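Hi all, posting the design record for the shared folder.

TITLE: backbone redesign
STEP: 1 of 1
STRUCTURE INPUT:
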């Protein structure tokens, strides 16, 4: 770097601090206080020093445990020398949280900063996360942030034309993004002075300023006296206009004013640490369950408040979200922390799940108790007929089925009684099937399965009879189960007797074989060469074995449902897959129980799809992405799809694979492999592997996946809806006879466009009105009419490709429904 160089180096004083990693959150809590104190000391000692800090959760800890220091921070923020960035609750993993989780990070993080400091973050800031999904530009913009700073993927992992660029998401949203040229810390890498000089040369070559981050990091610490003395010496040599104590805010403000010509990148920012999307199955499954349960609790808490005045549990649900957001921190969600940290995460997820369960139960039972189920023959309640049921005579017992989703669903309901008949609220008999219960109570070990059709975000009453025969019309095409096959009107699934693999999946609608070879094959991958993160790797495809030695047997044989259980083994591990086929659909659900005893190995399930010119798509937060079919290990959410050309035809077909809590997969040519489990050492960064190490994911785990063969594109096959239906089950509440103001069937929402999904319905944060969040799922612009009958409100408008819309519905019916951003503030024009 010479005196002739003109570009600025913006020096960003920061303290990267993982609240959990090789330590538990309690140690992170203490370190945050010490680091913040150190930063305040530097601000007092060096009048030009500026400190940059993200993560609302950290400020909350200071506020509750060191109020005097919190007051001092507020003064420094007002002064402009303590700069708030990030705008999120924590620095999360940026691939695995749902779209709504990212919305909540912004909602709760930015509103906290606004409430406590009178400001919000302008710069998204996630310097340590391992990858960044392609929908982040829209999520950032709609959370009040126009800029983004990150570090990974680094240059050797993803080549970018420049480290400064416009980052654009599928909907067209753009943020100005900057990738750090190297570390956010002075704890490793080039000596600090050399780092600054090297960045100066880069800036001069690029023709625009760069940012250089400094400060001791990972376990906190931040800028040191030595750091600032080095900076002072360089300023004396090169000038204060060249070497600037700065912040990301100042950097981007200057760049925005200068308007440099920079490239536009429309892509995800991947890949780093490919193993993080399959480590620690329990926390990933808990994350999925907690996200959905909180959303379901919000929806029915809202309905119970609107219809019946039940107080909305705003603060409790917010606490549930705060726990989930904290556990989405990249070293927890990414599965690379110590074993003790995951015990803490289990407790925290448990609290969120229980909070949501209590809120959901209170709302559902207030609603169900208020439904008019009275019958003229009933004068008072009495359990004379059966110890489990309030049924009088042959009048039946009401079972209220709630649907949290924003479209009508046809779903199987497992009622924990043995019934002779079931009718809907209109008295129409519905087919039933006697199924095994989860209890073994003398002869009382049977339950009843029936199909329910339930309105969107609403409920419906079904009447269940202990002894009355209801004589439904016979199913035209019942399910049949044989020793090695399942079949309904849509598909036939055949199994190899000794391996348990699917030998054939015939789509009877097109008379086509879905697979080009054995399907649902459990393959064992060697991963001794991988650390916990999967650093330096691109794929996991070192095949070393298969589960086999299978036992195949029929558990249920229709008419509504057939189940074939396949139990196979590998070494000391056992894989049990229950293949479930219902009469009404072509989808095959698979309930999996895995007893995993392998070390430094990975289990994948293989599905070779019989198509040519294959394309792979998968869900990302509030969107989707197409990826190359090159065998790379990549993150996905609730679904992946492999589609292609039908051989000797111009038609297209494919297979979607849905899951209830798995987040990694690969596709090589036409073969999709869903990653089920890996067993690296806890927090192993290619360390010394002695006999004291402990391995992840040993023992039992359960999850569900589904196979959905389809004709045409995934967009036209309802794949997004089917994935939600797998992950968001109906809720059933047994009731009795009572008068009430509510009807026996209620529709909560009506959306005219099939590709628009409503993901959230909640009370507004300022307690004035309701928030409805929707997004476009197919990548196609749409006109939509959205009605909320319980509020007597209607909205009409346009959705762009992959657009997220947040609608505010004021309590005052005289005020219009209007669009707001993710923070529930007026949307930018």
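Okay, here is what came back for every position:
SEQUENCE:
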């Amino acid at each position: 770097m010479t005196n002739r160089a003109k570009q600025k180096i913006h020096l960003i004083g920061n303290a990267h601090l993982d609240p959990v990693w090789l330590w538990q959150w309690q140690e992170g809590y203490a370190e945050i206080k010490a680091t913040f104190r150190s930063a305040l000391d530097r601000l007092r000692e060096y009048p030009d020093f500026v400190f940059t800090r993200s993560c609302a959760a950290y400020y909350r800890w200071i506020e509750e445990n060191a109020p005097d220091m919190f007051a001092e921070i507020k003064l420094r923020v007002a002064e402009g020398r303590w700069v708030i960035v990030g705008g999120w609750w924590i620095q999360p993993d940026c691939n695995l949280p749902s779209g709504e989780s990212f919305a909540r990070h912004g909602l709760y993080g930015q509103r906290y900063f606004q409430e406590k400091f009178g400001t919000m973050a302008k710069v998204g800031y996630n310097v340590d996360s391992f990858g960044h999904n392609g929908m982040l530009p829209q999520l950032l913009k709609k959370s009040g942030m126009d800029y983004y700073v990150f570090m990974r993927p680094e240059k050797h992992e993803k080549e970018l034309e420049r480290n400064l660029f416009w980052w654009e998401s599928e909907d067209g949203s753009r943020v100005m993004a900057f990738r750090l040229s190297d570390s956010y810390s002075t704890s490793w890498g080039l000596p600090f002075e050399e780092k600054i000089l090297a960045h100066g040369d880069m800036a001069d070559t690029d023709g625009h300023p760069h940012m250089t981050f400094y400060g001791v990091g990972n376990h906190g610490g931040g800028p040191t006296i030595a750091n600032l003395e080095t900076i002072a010496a360089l300023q004396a040599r090169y000038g204060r206009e060249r070497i600037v104590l700065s912040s990301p805010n100042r950097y981007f403000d200057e760049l925005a004013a200068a308007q440099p010509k920079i490239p536009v990148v429309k892509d995800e920012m991947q890949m780093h640490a490919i193993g993080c999307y399959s480590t620690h199955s329990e926390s990933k499954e808990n994350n999925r369950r907690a996200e959905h349960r909180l959303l379901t609790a919000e929806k029915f808490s809202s309905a119970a408040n609107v219809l019946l005045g039940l107080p909305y549990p705003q603060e409790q649900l917010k606490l549930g979200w705060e726990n989930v957001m904290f556990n989405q921190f990249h070293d927890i969600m990414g599965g690379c922390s110590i074993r003790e940290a995951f015990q803490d995460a289990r407790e925290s997820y448990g609290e969120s799940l229980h909070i949501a369960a209590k809120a959901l139960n209170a709302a559902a039972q207030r609603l169900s108790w208020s439904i008019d189920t009275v019958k003229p023959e009933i004068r008072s309640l009495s359990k004379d007929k059966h110890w489990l049921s309030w049924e009088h005579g042959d009048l039946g017992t009401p079972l209220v089925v709630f649907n949290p989703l924003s479209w009508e669903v046809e779903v199987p309901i497992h009622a924990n009684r043995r019934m002779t008949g079931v009718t809907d609220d209109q008295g129409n008999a519905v087919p039933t099937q006697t199924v095994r219960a989860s209890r073994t109570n003398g002869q009382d070990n049977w339950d009843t399965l029936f199909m329910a059709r339930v309105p969107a975000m609403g409920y419906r009453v079904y009447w269940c009879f202990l002894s009355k025969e209801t004589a439904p019309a016979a199913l035209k095409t019942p399910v049949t189960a044989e020793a090695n096959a399942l079949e309904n009107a849509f598909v036939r699934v055949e199994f190899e007797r000794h391996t348990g693999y699917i030998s054939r999946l015939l789509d009877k609608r097109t008379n086509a074989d879905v697979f080009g070879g054995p399907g649902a094959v459990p393959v064992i991958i060697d991963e001794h060469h991988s650390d916990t993160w999967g650093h330096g790797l691109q794929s996991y495809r070192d095949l070393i074995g298969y589960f086999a030695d299978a036992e195949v047997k029929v558990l249920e044989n229709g008419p509504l449902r057939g189940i074939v259980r396949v139990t196979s083994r590998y070494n000391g591990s056992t894989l049990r897959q229950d293949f479930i086929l219902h009469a009404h659909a072509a989808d095959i659900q698979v309930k999996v129980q895995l007893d995993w005893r392998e070390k430094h190995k990975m289990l994948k399930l293989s599905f070779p799809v019989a198509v040519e010119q294959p394309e792979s798509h998968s869900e990302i937060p509030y969107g989707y992405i197409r990826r190359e079919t090159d065998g790379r290990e990549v993150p996905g959410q609730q679904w992946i799809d492999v589609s292609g050309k039908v051989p000797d035809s111009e038609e297209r077909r494919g297979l979607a694979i849905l899951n209830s809590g798995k987040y990694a997969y690969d596709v090589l040519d036409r073969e999709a492999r869903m990653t089920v489990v890996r067993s690296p050492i806890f927090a192993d960064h290619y360390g010394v592997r002695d006999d004291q190490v402990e391995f992840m994911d040993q023992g039992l785990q359960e999850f569900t996946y589904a196979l959905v063969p389809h004709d045409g594109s995934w967009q036209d096959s309802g794949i997004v809806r089917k994935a939600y239906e797998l992950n968001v089950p109906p809720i059933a509440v047994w009731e009795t006879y009572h008068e009430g103001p509510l009807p026996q069937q209620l529709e909560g929402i009506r959306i005219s466009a099939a590709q628009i999904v409503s993901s959230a319905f909640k009370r507004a944060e300022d307690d004035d009105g309701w928030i409805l969040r929707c997004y476009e799922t197919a990548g196609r612009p749409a006109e939509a009419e959205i009605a909320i009958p319980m509020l007597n409100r209607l909205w009409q408008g346009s959705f762009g490709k992959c657009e997220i819309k947040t609608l505010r519905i004021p309590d005052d019916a005289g005020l219009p429904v209007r669009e707001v951003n993710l923070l529930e503030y007026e949307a930018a024009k």
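COMMENT: Residues 579 and 590 are 5 Å apart (CA to CA).
Let me know if anyone wants the other runs.
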